[in-house]
Design brief:
- The complex is a heterodimer of chains A (473) and B (436).
- With 473 residues, chain A is of the alpha/beta class.
- Helix content of chain A is 26%, strand content 19%.
- Chain A has a domain of 304 residues: Metal-dependent hydrolases (TIM Barrel), CATH 3.20.20.
- Chain A is globular.
- Chain A starts with 10 loop residues before the first helix and ends in a 23-residue tail after the last strand.
- Chain B is 27% helix and 22% strand.
- Classes of the chains: A alpha/beta (473), B alpha/beta (436).
- Chains A and B meet through helix 11 of A and helix 10 and helix 13 of B.
Amino acid sequence: MYTRTTQNINIVSKLLSIASLLLAPLSIQAQSDGQALLPYKKDHYPSTYKALASEPVAITNATILDGTGRRINNGTLLMEGGKITAIGTNIQVPEGMRIFDGTDKWVTPGIIDIHTHVGVSSRQHPSLSDGNEMTGPIQARLWVEHSVWPQHPGFARALAGGVTTMQILPGSGNLIGGRSIIIKNVPARTMQEMKFPGAPYGLKMACGENPKRAYGGMGSAPATRMANVAGYRQAFIEAAEYKRGWENYLVKIEDGEDVQPPTRDLGMDTLAAVLDDDIFVNNHCYRADELAVMMDLAKEMGFKITAFHHTIEAYKVADLLAENDVCAVMWSDWWGYKLEALDGVLENIALVEKAGACAIAHSDSEAVMQRMNQEIAKAMAAGNRIGLNISRANAIRWITSNPARAMRINDKVGSLEVDKQADVVIWTTDPFSVYALAEHVFIDGAHIYDRNDPSKQPQSDYELGIVKRGDHQ
Amino acid sequence: MSAFKKNLLSVLIPVTATTLLIEANAQSIAITNGRIHTMGAAGTLENATILIEGDTITAVGRNLLVPEGTEIIDADGQPVTPGLMNSYTQLALADSSAPGNGIGDQDYRASNSQYGAAFDIRYGLNPRAMIIPIVRLHGITRAISAPLATHDLFAGYGAIIHLGGTPDMIVTSRVALFADFGARGAQIAGGARDAAALKITEAIQDALHFDRNRSRYERGQTRDYSLNRMDLEALVPAAKGDAIINIAANRASDMRYLIELKEQHGLNIVVRDGQEAWLMADELAAAQIPVVLNPGINVGMEFSGFNATYSNAARLHAAGVLIAFSNVSNPHPSNPEIVRQLAGLAVAHGLPWEEALRALTINPAKIWGLEESYGSLESGKDADIVVWDGDPLELMSYPLAVFIKGQRMPNDSRQIRLRDRYQTLPDAGGEPPAFH
């Protein structure tokens, strides 16, 4: 569970958890009548995701990378009822299971891309550019899910690359860009049909060049990095005050006073939830010196940064990242497209791993998202060329269990363990090869993609009748 | 560690200079015991040797006698290929991986210039650009470096460069005139493809008319032209079919236009991007129009690229179209070095392995008129050679040795120095990395 346990906390502090008011699953809401006083205790845009129909499946004789750091040769994986029911060697396959012969094939958890803008941005169609509200640097009020266009063909492309879960983020033009959404990568009519049940929200923040370019260029704040930092601090000072206002209100209600609730503010709702650590922070931040400032800023303001994104210079402060338990979300070899991206090195991900920090690979790209396995292969190889001795079983964590942990869904997905959701990819060969392709993809046990069967390849409305199914491959 | 690696490491050039420039130092080198993908008539040779004298390959074959005093590099059976070529970049026209937001000097575009076709990138090329050593360590030794169209359909002339990082980096100046059609060309020309087509037709007619009436032009006795004198002059060789015009376009119908353009005016056209080119593969093959493409594109979010597919390369090749690769028009603006990965991706989607390597070597040599000196490992050609530690198209393979015109490239770049500086982080109070 991402929400903190309320069992042993007294009723007042239970009431005071703004985050649980915002995000709480029904079970927690039911625990407190006080919460009924709050207008935003419910998720007003709840997930309507339903796992697709599945049959019991056995994958046999495969090389399995389970996402926890373990490699199983000649392994068997069983799934039933949407869950993984067995994994290992010498497993008896029960009668009636559909068998996928995994001889010469590899199996991994479904890939998790922690950083995408699929469905909310497009290079070519301005009318689909819905991810970057550059009309003011603090946009905590925004929920990116209100922009997600489920017909974006990038979803199905990513599925063909084995991506089963993704975090869609607002853009990086703002100091605070708004809430992210975590989705299961299933074809859907509405955003809510994709929304990952029980997953938390994330917050997008951005350091450095982008916000100061977006606003400085218009002659407004922030025009400098110091103004960036002042902007975050001011916002969180206001959020702390806002949170106190609600806390005081609830105490008075508890005491039977007849008081009016504070004025609601959507942005402050979100930042207050961040202060309660119920929304995790994704901070786009490149430079080593800025990473250090942001870690201290988070301490000053009383919140936690879960992951820095696009962390080109993570290798310079990998020790600090490990010490502060902050993940670094990186590319394998993209660099140099702006000054703060100048110091990219091929060994970045591997050096962060070596330092004992949480290393994650991401795409931020519709193209790269389709070959996340290739990105980690390049990054692993670069590390191994300098003797870091990283195994495939460990490297696969960069796109499976590590992002799952950062996204607080690691109790559900990110590794192939019994009782976890059966999000699984069968690869034609070693996924660290450029020639490997995702052959079969399962989400919650449902066989949702089959490379050899065009009828098992979802196609968006956008492409219907124009592109022959399967022709994009 | 294999004997091979020991051998190669033992001959790594020590980096003593403070800059990454290489001083010329001609010598005799033999690369022995290689699996040599010649990309020439000899095909692939096992346990073969390449002899290099100065900047030139002097012999390739099995059982060659290695003259005394020759430095020997034992490839230990590993693949040896020609240095790879990226057929569309802005390399050395900016310090890093332009285009994008761009940093520092950006000599690949001149949106406020009055010139179009006359623009030539030659004086913008910087052999000391920090990106050059980084890219060549991935086995890329040659590239097209080209201008970007901004305000004019004709962006100007690009060059073939080598990545040796020396002042003689231009291999072929004015190798092609770069232009845009398709959605972007339409945008530049005023909004519609037919506006772009009119501009192209008018420019060609004006250039040819100008060429036939030069003395009258000087006397002010010609009709008005749509272009200034410098642009007219620059268009003449392209209009006559003597210079290549490399035109970007994606939609299948754009290919039909380009085929007609070639037929009507006798132009020497090479298509760039061509996301839907496979839909016109037979026609392009019949018209003998090569295509420079990024095999890693399958989301054509503009309407022009609806049918973008990973099997574009395979389908074009199957139809007989000459193809070459670049990382151009990636939705994720990427770096020139990933063209090797993109070639591997084309193989994963049906292109024969050998053809993918051709699209990075001999095919660009043919397309860009460089076949005399580059593109295969054959006697008489420039010694651009890469010794690999595995399949050159594989993600985890990496060059063990890169030669450009006979010079062994040092295993050094700004990236490598950054990595070395921070590979071991200082303890509190330890020596700051700035001293490393």
